[in-house]
Amino acid sequence: MAASLKNAWKKYILHFAHDHLEKNPFLEIELPSNNAASQIMSRLVLGKSIYELWGKASCVDDLLLKLKSSNINNPCSSSDTSFKIDVECFNRTQTMEQKIERIQLKFNGRVNLSKPQHKFSLLEFYEYDSVNPKEAPQQVYFGRWVRSNTSMDPTLSLLMATMGQVKANDLVFDPFVGSGGWTLGIVRTFWGICKPSRKGQKWRFRDETILNNLRQYNLEKHYVDAFVADFTSYKLWCTDQPRFDAIITDPPYGVREPSQKLGKHKQSKSQQDKETAETSAANCYPTKTSYHLTNMLLDLLDFAARTLTLGGRLVFWMPIVRDIYVPENIPHHPCLKLVSNSEQIFFIRVSRRLITMEKVTEFNVRRILT
């Protein structure tokens, strides 16, 4: 009985959404049904698409011969059906004319590029070589589309929540929150409670709030609050007692938005007295000083060691220059253990790394000083 059930399983090709040029993003798996494939994709954060695999080969011509001689139940055997065939190439760019040349399958159905009943994909993987690009693919797949996930940028919030192991009724904190876009992914998927804060002051319309963003999805009950404060001010927290189940954040790198903290520039005493007199009767906005990324990350780790519950996780992004990066560049703290270090490539020389750390020891000032 077990053998017959195993034989009933079908082959699928899973397309991962990653940018590692040296690796094949296509993974062949076996599943009992399309429903099982959809269920896997609903929880697979880094999965881009999944297809029912109809055939694979080392070149397009061999693949077409296999497909013509196969006995697959083709849903497009009737003229009443419509279909669409996409061509996707990894590590290779092709023109529309080149893609059309590869589509030599003859289905009885009608071609419908906008709303087809059935979608198919020809997937080609080329070995990466920046000096001498390969002319022929290393592997070619053809399959029927089953399901795709959202675009990569929104998916990153789900990836961060997954790495933070956010679960129901968790209190999640973001010390550098902006519009709160990633909070939607956490609250919608994991039903965690978010309590973000902001550093610095930014002008927005009255209805442009994190709460209103969550209200559009009927998720406002999971929202605690947001406030404007200087992240580096420990007096704000009053105590070192753990309170957060996870800290998930994307610190400002100083590129799109400045890295700053509240502080005073070095001035003479006469200048300080003059400025104090001029602002004594008016609203006084605190001055800001530059905040180096290294100092910011060290403060973030120290803050996490103080305020995370034991076993809680810190998840943050760290920009790097790929040519000079070494694992020792990752900041460390005696109370935190490095769990994961993954890369998102922007350009050939620039990328950022998603760092995940877990609190393994209670914070103790004496231990830190020694």
UniProtKB/TrEMBL annotation:
Pfam family, one: Tmrp11_N
Region (Disordered): 257-281
Cleavable signal peptide: none
InterPro entries hit by this protein: DNA_methylase_N6_adenine_CS (IPR002052), SAM-dependent_MTases_sf (IPR029063), TRMT11_N (IPR059073)
Location of the tRNA (guanine(10)-N(2))-methyltransferase TRMT11 N-terminal domain: 19-148
UniProt keywords, alphabetically: Methyltransferase, Transferase
Keyword Chaperone appears in the UniProt entry: no
Database matches in PANTHER family: RNA METHYLASE-RELATED (PTHR13370), TRNA (GUANINE(10)-N2)-METHYLTRANSFERASE HOMOLOG (PTHR13370:SF3)
Name of this chain's protein: tRNA (guanine(10)-N(2))-methyltransferase TRMT11 N-terminal domain-containing protein
